[in-house]
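User: I'm writing a short report section on ligand binding and want a predicted complex to refer to. Could you take this sequence and 3-methyl-2-oxobutanoic acid and write out the structure as tokens? A short remark afterwards would be nice.
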Amino acid sequence: MPAKKEFKKVTTHSLQMMKANKEKISMITAYDFSFAKIFDGAGIDVILVGDSASNVMAGHETTLPITLDQMIYHASSVIRGVNRSLVVVDLPFGSYQSNSNEALISTFRIMKETGAHAIKLEGGEEVLESVKKIIAAGVPVMGHLGLTPQSIYKFGTYTVRAKEEAEAEKLKKDARLLEEAGCFAIVLEKIPALLAREVALQLSIPVIGIGAGRYCDGQVLVMHDLLGINNEFKPRFLRQYLSLHDEVTKAVQSYIKDVKSLDFPSEQEQY
Ligand code: KIV
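Assistant: Sure. The structure tokens for the complex follow:
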């Protein structure tokens, strides 16, 4: 019998150990089985089933329209492709902001119907009661501060957050409160690198940045941005590792050409 491949599952505890050992944490979004399987096999630490699915999978302008049912569909597909990575699922807009009871019910649905390992939600002090109740129910929670896309209509723009003293102070306080409430990690989105550094030094839980600079304990990117699937989105913080948009275009154009010219299928490609 072939030897079973050995791997150690990533847990919230291993992420804390990574921070303690100064090993950076890698995180990427995924929304379906096939990409989740590739990312897991490549050795990614955390897979986020982000509500950015609303943008990159469904083509909406914001993350607001995606529903809890749709997030559950994406998350259960991702889970089927994963052996090792920790899978975190976003609570979508409107599934937790009313009260902590609603937050708990949405969390229970995600955990029961997808098999995911943790949830993420946006906000600080204003969602603290929900965070505490979810953790008390045994579910690990990842916080999300800075640019929180579910509040885009309050912010009015996707520019860098917390450049002013008052917002930076609130962010630091919120980060402390989320840690005290029991969050296992926090995402900081699009804030100055030195502020993210201060937060990462201040907290004992991992701080994972997107557009928050090099001093965070880990980094997260949206898979479509990293792989260059969407070739129109090129913010300063993004490092694009592939130009999949161009590669796929070239491949499909070759396929069209081969079909039209009767080159495909050849005799060897038929029964
Ligand atoms: O939904 C998402 O993809 C996210 C990341 C940007 C952190 O929340």
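A remark for your report: Residues 33 and 80 are 6 Å apart (CA to CA). The two ends are 34 Å apart (CA to CA).
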